[in-house]
Amino acid sequence: MTSSLELKGITKVFTDRKTGHQVRAVEDMSFSVAAGELVSVVGPSGCGKSTILNMVSGLYAPTEGEVLIDGEKVVGTRPEVGFMLQKDLLLPWRSIVKNVEFGLEEKKISKAERRERAMLELERMKLAEFADKYPHQLSGGMRQRAALARTLVIEPDIILLDEPFSALDAQTKLVLQRHFARTIAEAGVTCVLITHDLNEAVIMSDRVVCMSGRPGTVVDEFPIELGNRTDPLARSMESKCGNYVKRLFDLLHLEDQAA
Amino acid sequence: MADTQTKLAPDPKGSGSGPGRQATTFLGLRNTLGGNQTEIAAIIGLGVIVIAIWEFLPPALGLPRYIIPTFSDCMAEFGRLAAREDLLRHFMSTLTSALLGFVLGGLLGAACGYLLGMSRLMERVLSPYILALQIAPKVAFAPLFIMWFGYNSIPKLLVTVLIVFFPILVNVLQSMKTVDRDLVNLARVYSMNRWTIFRKIEVPSSLPNLFAGLRIGATLAVIGVTVGELVGGNTGLGFLITYGEGQANTAMVFDAIILLTVIGVALYFAVAAVEKRVLHYLVREEH
Lengths: 259, 287
Description:
The complex is a heterodimer. Chain A is globular, with a radius of gyration of 18 Å. Chain A is 35% helix and 24% strand. In chain A, helix 3 packs across helix 4 and helix 4 runs parallel beside helix 5. Chain B is an all-alpha fold. Chain B is built from 13 helices and no strands. Chain B folds into two domains: 63 residues, no CATH class; 198 residues, MetI-like (MetI-like fold). Chain B is globular and about 75 Å long. The interface between A and B is medium-sized, with 26 and 23 residues.
């Protein structure tokens, strides 16, 4: 059920339709994610992190290179890929349970089963009592949990998280990071987490891929050898954690930019 | 939990009893007319004062009733019109034309808006013409329609359809262009096809804009019908205005204007009530 992901020599060039001006967003980028692994991708803003996610989800194809899922080339969108952004992308006109059902509607299953699976997922997210509420009636953290429920209910092989915590306040963020870590580990699903929060990258993942500025390419990648990744908070207390963050900090030349 | 529920309640001020509650049930008028009983009392009080001034000031200033008929003159004229001039028939004719024109114009406008919104090419090719037609004063078409279709109810209906059409078209088109791309991408990742995305993402996203257009259309519909009736025809409140003018019966003109306003207000609030029901999921600021 869970899949491996491989990016091989990906280059993505965007051409401005009016001026013909070309922008190289990503340049010869390669990295892989093993089945069940959680890999974070960090990099300076505008380095093409989100571009990578869009190519993995099949929304557009790379200019050069290929994306492989379980060794098969990605040629279009596929329902086995879950997708989460900073925005919760909940449909405001649908109740929470109907939002969770959204991803199931293209699958050939009965209405009753759809509702059952959605409710089960909401129970896991501790949102069952809010099933009939509308998104605007929920807090930001709850909405993001509902979005995770919608992502997981389709039983994806891979989930792509594009800064899912960055719009939340510090406390909600901590709670949600732990919740996500547990849920994702339970589901055993392969996961790519795009983030600009170095600490988050370290405490959430098995491995970190660090990208350069535009055009983005991999400058370094290393495994995070901390305790169980289902408890990000405990990991952040470990002394080694700071070293990893420092390493990323140096890699991104953040010190030079501070001035 | 508790505060999420207060958001659900239609009246955040939570002061609902007596006449206030009745206002809520009447087409959601209460939100527009204001929240509490004091405000409603003030609104009614102001109305009474205006009517009193209207009743007593013109005679005091020696203005004859063919310049400004008093409130009671107008009421008396209502009675005479109902008894002698078949007021009900005129009223119904205008009301039906306004409603029919509004519905047809709205349907056509929305359909064209969605169609153009689906095709970037069509929109590019047609938009200069749409802009030109949108700027052209629609009421000026009325005499033309009369030349083409004669003195019947078709010209006024056409003017109404035409005048209602554009704001709705433009609003829907605008909303189609501003649909959240990420929502569309989400649907694409879930392997939804173009038609499903249209139904499940684009149409619901466009509803607030569609209703904004419909509200504008509701007020314009009355203008369309009135102009159509003023220019030609022998039925409707617009006709009563020209008829009254010819007889120097100012009270008749006043009455026709009052009834036209009533139709416009009713249409507007009907749209607003439907909107409130359909768009219940939007958090609304108190106006």
